[in-house]
Amino acid sequence: MAQLNTLIDAVDGCEIKIYELITGSTNQSQYLHTFIYITPNPFNFQFDISRKSLGGKSNFVFGNSSIDDHFTFSTSN
Question: How many CB atoms lie within 10 A of CB 32?
Answer without folding.
Answer: 13
